[in-house]
Amino acid sequence: MMLDVKGVARLLSVSEKTIYRWLAKQEIPAFKIGETYRFNRVELLEWATARKIRVAPEIFAEAFDADVPLPSLADALRCGGIHYRIYGTDKRTTIRAIVDTISLPEDIDRQYLHDALMARENLGTTAIGDGIAIPHVRNPIIFHIHKPVLSLCFLEKPVDFGALDNRPVDTVFTIITNTIRSHLHILSRLSFALHRPDVRGVITSASSREMILETLENLERALKPGAAVS
User: Fold this and answer.
1) Are residues 52 and 97 in the same domain?
2) Is 203 inside any structural domain?
3) Are residues 184 and 217 in the same domain?
4) Residues contacting 216, CB < 8 A, separation 6+
5) What values do phi and psi take at 161, rounded to 5?
6) Which terminal residue of the chain, N or C, has fewer Cβ atoms less than 10 Å from its own Cβ?
C-alpha cells in the first residue's frame, strides 16, 4: 500500500522535484522513515482528489492484483443507491440523513457509521470542490459487509462542508467498505471518474439513475486491460 517519491511522481504525472517541493512545504501527506519518504495510497488519493490532481489509471493495475474480483463503480453504486432531495441544515445533519437513507444490511449500526463518518470529517473535510464531497471512514475496515457500498446523494439544499474552493456541497458520494483494498479500489476509481467530463456532466446535472449508471459502466469498460483511456 506504500509508495516512494518516484512512484508518486509517476502516478501523479509530475517530476520528483515537484514532489520534493510539496514535501518541503508540507503540502502532501507522507511519512519520513530515516531519510526516506513513504506515501499511503489512500491518503494520497484523498489529497490528489481534493486538489483535482489527476491520478494515472495504472494505479488500478498496480493496486489490485489479487485473485478476488472487486466490483465496478456501477455495481457498488447499485448497492448503496442513488438518492435525490436529501435534506440537512449542516454537515452533521446532512450526514445523518444520508446514513439513514442509503441501502445497508439490516445489522449495520447506523449510529456508529454516522459517528465514524463525522470523526473522519473532524480530521479534515472530504469535500473535493465543485460542490462534491466523498465522506468515508478513516479506517475502512469497520463492517462485515460482503462487498463495497457506494451511495450518491443529491442534497435538497447546498451545505457548507468547508471545501477548499469555499463552495457548498450539493452532491455527496459515501463509501463504505470492508477492506483497505476495496476502499482504495472504490476511492481511486471514483477519483479518476470525476476527472472525466462525461461523468462530471451527469453528476453535476443530477441526471437520472439510469444515465449515471450507464455512464459509469461505459467508463469501466474503458478501464479494462487493453482498452484506451482518454
Assistant:
1) no
2) yes
3) yes
4) 72, 73, 74, 77, 193, 199
5) -110, 5
6) C
Together in a domain, 97 and 195: yes
Q: How many domains is the chain built from?
A: 2
The mean pLDDT value for 182-197 works out to 86
Distant-in-sequence contacts of 216-219, Cβ < 8 A, 24+ apart: 216/72, 216/73, 216/74, 216/77, 217/72, 217/74, 219/73, 219/193
Q: Do 20 and 114 lie in a common domain?
A: no
Which residue spans within 24-142 are E strands per DSSP?
31-33, 36-40, 82-86, 127-129, 132-133
| pLDDT tens readout for residues 71-82 | 889 999 999 999
User: What is the rounded distance in angstroms from the CA atom of residue 54 to the CA atom of residue 163?
Assistant: 18
CA dist 150 → 153, 167, 190 (Å) = 10, 23, 10
pLDDT tens column, 22-62: 999 988 988 887 788 988 777 787 788 778 787 776 655 54
- Are the C-beta atoms of residues 170 and 83 closer than 8 Å to each other? no
Buried b (16+ CB within 10 A) or exposed e, 117-138: bbebbeeebbbbbbbbbbbbbb
Q: How confident is the model at residue 228 (pLDDT cuts 50, 70, 90)?
A: very low
